[in-house]
Amino acid sequence: MTALERLSRRIVACRRCPRLVAHREQVAREKVRRFRDWPYWGRPLPGFGDPSARLWVIGLAPAAHGGNRTGRIFTGDRSGDWLFAALYRAGFANQPTSVSRDDGLTLRDAYVSAIVRCAPPDNKPTNEERDRCLPYIGEEMRRLLSVRVFVALGGFAFANLVRVLRAAGVESAATPRFGHGVVVKLGDGRAIVGCYHPSQQNTFTGRLTESMLDDVFRVAKRGVRS
Known about the structure:
Elements: H1 3-12, H2 18-30, E1 48-49, E2 55-59, H3 67-70, H4 78-89, E3 110-114, H5 127-143, E4 149-153, H6 155-167, E5 183-185, E6 191-195, H7 200-203, H8 210-225
Parallel strand pairs: 2-3, 2-4, 4-6
Antiparallel strand pairs: 1-3, 5-6
Helix pairs in contact: 1-5, 4-8, 5-6
């Protein structure tokens, strides 16, 4: 078993946050009508993808009836539909859809995870819950040694990724400020690319379009190859 696999097992077994544990398990018991026959995962979610990835995509947290149901980050919800379709178009995935853990999806040179590993009520973790989860990103960072570009989905992921990098001694030339398409050059030669989160709030309103998402991954692809 690799160090990354051991970390994933620890993440899945985590019960550090009583409110999040209660919520994720309640959702898994009560379900929703359209998924009433689905055996919900109801646990924290580790990262997913290529251990040698040069691209790392980081989101906020699992969706209650997405990753918390399927057991894989961004799988089985509308945000994931947008994300994995874009990764496919950019050549980072072998297929454009992601509906379950065993659907055959494979990421190529890409890894996906989230700042918070449990589905939070109203998609809003507390600061304390976030801080209990942040060490997992730091541990992943020490194991994903080939990463050249981070794509941060949303301001929450962006700000907390910057915090973890600073704690690891990685700074940027200018003060990082989130924005869609913003590229932050890091002192160690890597880069962060900001991206609006592919949530329904953004995709339904046109704040984020497919072409905008594709532009982000074109930039990221150039970065991993430089």
